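Listing S7. Sequence submitted for prediction.
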Amino acid sequence: MIDAFIHPNYFVKIPIKILFFLALPMLFFARNKEAFNDFKKLFIFKKGGIFKALLLGVGVYAVIVGGYFLTRNIIDFSNVTSSLTEGMGITANNFIYVSLYISLMNSFLEEFFFRGFGFITLKKYSSRKLSYIF
């Protein structure tokens, strides 16, 4: 809704996303200790889990780069630069910071919210199968 009505640039969206995807769920967990205990179980590392995650990450990266090379002669990517600059306020000077934020913080926020908070809360009120499907 924020994108649809307010149209803020990317640097205004960052604190809004942190508020909704991190601060509000943390307030919920502060008031619901049982839900927080279920949430913490998601972060218990199993032997070999880190290696599998890194391998999967490298595989996803390879698919993205491969997809670019397969489509670079079909899709005109020159509009991407102007779209990032005009629509989101991303320039050559701040691109590295935005890319690091998207790669690290934004992905953490989304996983925290959808797989942690959203999944656990939905699972309390519906079946585990429906939670996985959703």
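Caption to Listing S7: primary sequence and predicted structure tokens for the chain studied. The chain has a mean pLDDT of 85. Residues 95-125 form the longest helix (31 residues).
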